[in-house]
Each structure stands twice: as structure tokens, then as C-alpha cells.
Specification:
Radius of gyration of chain A: 22 Å
Number of strands of chain B: 22
Distance between the termini of chain B: 10 Å
Strand content of chain A: 15-25%
Number of helices of chain B: 11
Number of helices of chain A: 5
Structural class of chain A: alpha+beta
Radius of gyration of chain B: 21 Å
Oligomer: heterodimer
């Protein structure tokens, strides 16, 4: 089934159509191929396919640095590589993404492995910040917690989620372009 | 893929009213049109739309990464110098994003061709994710569609997923002591207001306290923090308002220092820009889902037949100039005449029963998740184009 099973809206005054079953989801990130196989969430075949894809991408598309210092400054652990007459430094592959696993999917009730976009198999690295936080990064800048997903929003802003009251000095500093262009923002 | 006439539900206006769908008729003309429907095979959906959307999305994120590391590319995309660190930093930190819509020309045969990306302020969301779904469920229940019918539409489920994830990572509790997730749009646009209210509803379901503000009512305090109309610091804000406008406006500089976390995040400035189309073509020349596209170095030159010119920043089909292979010129006026241009190979929208159809393919939570189809009597899809539901048979 390609559609949502149940939808509801509350503010818009729509009663729940059907009650939604709950499902748990996690990002399958592993340090090593063995860890993936041992855990057994997905088959060994899925693990090794993902690992091989990640390794291949690591060798062809990982961040490259001209100097050891530049690489170490960002990633800590690096390796020296010579290839096609060029030499450079690469961060060590710290792990790999095997996909996102859902305990229930749609109305099938079956576990489901999602390997699109952010969950496509790929190499994972650890920047210096990642070592501190226990997270992984992709070369594209995504951050994943070692297990369970992560994001800058967890440490973003001034932290915390409580309300803060203040006094407003001025308003009206946004919205002018819309008036100038006839009043709409969406596309 | 085919277009077929479809009996409108006798009570669809009443249903729209109870579902909060207020913009189904725009200036007296129908916007929601269920007198027809598009029918797809599962293979058409999966092979021709879902899979390419996933692949193109990954290609786009790769490009965001590349642009975020290059002053030269940021310059090409006209991202103002003062905001380049903000944009790049937002990508490097992994600021989460919600959604995007790819617009395809697709007629059921051959590869879908990407015409545009709408990754900052996409609309036609509610009607694709919710009202289209309700239409299909009711039609099934009443026997007007076979029980086995399906629809490519997990959009709302995936939206809820993103907000649930955000709630988990922000530590929001949903209690009265929490800050509000502030949802903003321009004052006075019923369509934008409806889209934002819909997302607010989903954030609410995910457990956030939420609040709506007109973007004009956002304020600033003495520490440079954005405030809402009840003088609370805005921690999290959703904006249905383009980044390039925010950068240029009076409060633009405050974005650099304020602690507010934004949906969409600043890195979306890279993908909401038509300059991404020539960059995609340059990185993946000949890709079956891409059309040749280039930056227009001489905007005053005469557009040769078979090409389309689009401003880097433009919305809802405005300021598009089109020259068909036979030499016919179609121009749409608009307020974006001040922007640099790109040139993209002309690719006619498919014509069904005299209507030109555009497939909007949604990405939510980094996954391809569903489609919405809009029709126009002309070759350019605009804000007045009609939304027509679809099914998988």
C-alpha cells in the first residue's frame, strides 16, 4: 500500500479517521559489518551490501585533505592514500549506515527497511565533535547519534525547551518583500 | 497514466468546509477539481516517480554539500555574502528539514523530467496529503472506486514523523511550560494560512505547543532574539516565507545572531534557487530525469526556440519566458524581473483532454512520499492551476 492508513487533524476540527497503530523506528548505524550481522535486525546479505556500498563510496567520495594536519584538525584519525598519481589524506571510515528500520510499516504490520535519501547506505565518519558527542557524520554533513538519530536541534539555540518571556523592542522587520511582490510566499 | 472523468462527491464542499479546506475555490474559479482523476499503475508510480525522486533528492543533497563549501557557487546562486556562513553552518550542523516538492513533466511513458525544485516554501501540500486522501477514502467507501484502489500518498504520516523526531531531539514536553513552536506566514493569504495551519496541526499532534503568528508580527528583543506577539522568545519557527526575502529584509541580520531554529533551515536557500538546475545538469549531464540547463550569461539575448528562461528566484510560474521548438513565445509577467536567469531546455507538459498536467512529487523526512497533480489550460503552471486527485489502480 502506497498511502497512509490513518490520518487525523485536530485543530482543523477533523475527527480521527481511524486510530493509528504505533511503530518504533531506528537508524541502523554500525561501526563494523560484524555488528550489523550480529544484531540481526536485517539479514547478513543486507548488512554486507550496505557495507560494501559504504566502503566504495568512502574510497571514491570521502572528504579529502592535502595535509595531515587539516584532516586531523577536523576528524582526528586519518589515513594517507595515493591514487592515480595523487596523494591525499582521508578520515577513517568510522561506521556505516545500513538504513532505517521500522517495526511496523503501513498496514502490513511488518518490519520495513528504508534505504532512501538520508538512510541510503553510506560511510559514516567521526569529526572531533562527533567523538565528544558519540555521534557520526556523513561527508554531506548529516549527524546521526550512534543509535537513534540526532540533529543539531538537540544542542541548537540556547538549549532547553522552556518558555522565556522578554520585552519586544520593535516589530515589522519581516514581510515587506511579500507586499512588494503581491502578497504571497508559497510556490 | 490516464485522465478520466470522475463523479464529484455530492457533498464535497461540505466535506471541504468541515476539513478546514477554505481555498478550494480561488477568485470564483475552482482550485480543487474532482470532476476528473488521474489513474496510474503501480509500476508508473514506483519506477517513474518514486525512485527518481529519491535519487534526485540524494543528488540535491550532494550539491548542497558542494555549494556549502564553495564561495564561488554561493556567488553564482546569489546568496548574499553576509549569509553564506549561516547557510553553510546550517548544513554542516545537520539542521533538520521538513519537505520539498519536485515538479515533473510526466505522461506515463519515458522518464519523468524535472522542471523545478520547490524546497523552501512549497505549497499545495494540504490538498495533496490530506484532502486528496479523504477524497479517495470516501470514494472507496461509497463504492465509486474499487476497494483495491490505492494512492501514492504517505505525506502526512511522514510529516508527523519529522515533528515527532523534532520533539524528541528538542526535549519539548508539550506542557504549558514549553516554548511554543511558532508557525508563520504572510498576513492575508488564505492559501498560505491554510497550509501553515495544517502543519501546525501536525506539530500539535506530535506533542508541540504551537502558535500562529503573521510573519509581519514577529518582533525582536534587546538581546536580538525574535519574539512572538505575547513577548516570548521564539525557539522554533516554521516559516512559509522565502529565505532570500528574509535575508533582504530589515530583520535579516538578526537571523545571524538570534537563537531561533528555523524550518526550513537556512541551507534550503541553496535548493530554493533555480540555479540548482544548471548545477544538477553539470554534475549529472545526460541524467534521464534532468533537462539540460545553464546559467544565462546574456539575459538580453534573444531566446532560441526550444528553451525556457527562469529567474533564479521566482515563484508560481512568474517571470517565465518560453520559446517552443516551433518558435512560439510564451511569457508570464511577474514581480521577479530583477533576478539573474537560468536557461532550461523546453519540455512540453503532457496534455490530457486539453489540460496540461504537472506532477508535484513530495519528499518528506528525506523520503519520496507522494504526489499531487495540478492542471492548467496553459503550458505554465501557476498559483491558479487546478488540483486534480489521483489513484493507483
Amino acid at each position: 500500500m502506497k498511502r497512509s492508513r490513518h490520518l487525523k487533524l485536530s485543530l482543523l476540527g477533523v475527527a480521527p479517521i481511524v486510530f493509528t497503530a504505533c511503530s518504533s523506528e531506528e537508524d541502523l548505524t554500525y561501526d563494523k559489518l560484524d555488528d550489523c550481522i550480529q544484531e540481526g535486525k536485517v539479514t547478513a546479505q543486507v548488512c554486507s551490501t550496505a557495507y560494501n556500498k559504504a566502503m566504495q563510496e568512502h574510497l571514491t567520495r570521502s572528504p579529502r585533505f592535502a595535509s595531515a594536519d587539516d584532516c586531523a584538525g577536523q576528524y582526528g584519525n586519518c589515513q594517507y592514500v595515493q591514487s592515480n598519481g595523487q596523494s591525499f589524506w582521508l578520515p577513517l571510515m568510522a561506521g556505516f549506515m545500513a538504513g532505517r528500520w521500522s517495526s511496523h510499516y503501513g498496514n502490513t504490520g511488518r518490519p520495513y527497511l528504508d534505504t532512501y535519501g538520508q538512510w541510503a547506505p553510506r560511510p559514516l565518519y567521526r569529526t572531533r565533535d562527533d567523538w565528544d558527542r558519540g555521534t557520526y557524520s556523513t561527508s554531506g554533513g548529516y549527524t546521526y547519534s550512534s543509535r537513534g538519530g540526532g540533529s543539531s536541534w538537540s544542542s541548537g539555540g540556547d538549549g532547553g525547551s522552556g518558555r522565556i518571556s522578554t520585552s519586544t523592542l520593535s516589530r515589522g522587520g519581516f514581510g515587506g518583500s511579500s507586499v512588494a511582490r503581491g502578497g504571497w510566499g508559497g510556490s | 497514466m490516464r485522465r478520466t472523468s470522475s463523479p464529484p462527491r455530492f457533498d464535497w464542499k461540505e466535506t471541504a468546509r468541515t476539513c478546514g479546506f477554505r481555498f478550494h475555490t480561488v477568485d470564483g474559479d475552482p482550485y480543487w477539481d474532482e470532476s476528473a482523476r488521474y489513474e496510474f499503475s503501480l509500476a508508473e508510480i514506483e519506477r517513474d516517480l518514486e525512485d527518481p525522486t529519491g535519487e534526485l533528492h540524494a543528488m540535491c543533497l550532494d550539491l548542497v554539500d558542494k555549494v556549502s563549501r564553495s564561495q564561488e557557487l554561493m556567488e553564482r546562486l546569489c546568496i548574499p555574502e553576509a549569509f553564506r556562513d549561516l547557510v553553510a553552518g546550517s548544513w554542516r550542523k545537520g539542521d533538520p528539514h521538513l519537505y520539498g516538492r519536485m515538479d515533473f513533466s510526466y505522461d506515463g511513458s519515458g522518464p519523468a523530467k524535472l522542471l523545478e525544485l520547490n524546497y523552501d516554501t512549497p505549497t499545495a501540500l494540504y490538498e495533496a496529503s490530506f484532502f486528496q486522501w479523504i477524497w479517495m477514502e470516501q470514494m472507496r467507501e461509497r463504492g465509486d472506486l474499487p476497494k483495491s484502489v490505492d494512492q501514492y500518498n504517505r505525506i502526512q504520516e511522514d510529516l508527523l514523523d519529522v515533528f515527532a523526531h523534532l520533539k524528541a531531539v528538542t526535549g519539548a514536553t508539550g506542557s504549558g511550560n514549553d516554548a511554543s513552536f511558532v508557525f508563520t506566514a504572510v498576513r492575508g493569504s488564505e492559501e498560505d494560512r491554510g497550509t501553515v495551519q495544517y502543519l501546525q496541526d501536525i506539530a500539535n499532534q506530535a506533542g508541540f505547543r504551537t502558535r500562529y503568528e503573521n510573519i509581519e508580527d514577529i518582533g525582536i528583543d534587546d538581546q536580538g532574539r525574535f519574539t512572538d506577539s505575547v513577548d516570548e522568545v521564539i525557539r522554533w519557527a516554521f516559516k512559509l516565507y522565502p529565505w532570500e526575502w528574509m535575508f533582504a529584509e530589515e530583520f535579516g541580520r538578526q537571523i545571524l545572531t538570534s537563537p531561533t531554529l528555523w524550518l526550513e533551515p537556512p541551507w534550503k536557500a541553496i535548493l530554493s534557487n533555480k540555479g540548482i538546475l544548471p548545477l544538477l545538469w553539470e554534475a549529472h549531464p545526460g541524467h534521464p530525469n534532468l533537462l539540460p540547463a545553464f546559467f544565462e550569461d546574456d539575459p538580453s539575448s534573444i531566446l532560441p526556440p526550444g528553451w525556457v528562461r527562469k529567474p533564479l528566484f521566482s515563484r508560481e510560474g512568474a517571470n517565465i519566458q518560453m520559446r517552443t521548438p516551433s518558435g512560439q513565445t510564451i511569457s508570464v509577467d511577474g514581480p521577479y524581473g530583477d533576478s539573474p536567469l537560468i536557461r532550461q531546455e523546453y519540455h512540453a507538459l503532457p496534455c490530457f483532454d486539453g489540460r496540461y498536467a504537472l506532477v508535484g512529487s513530495w519528499v518528506v523526512a528525506d523520503r519520496p512520499t507522494g504526489i499531487g497533480i495540478r492542471e492548467d489550460d496553459t503550458l505554465v503552471t501557476r498559483d491558479t492551476s487546478r488540483f486534480v486527485p489521483h489513484v493507483i489502480l
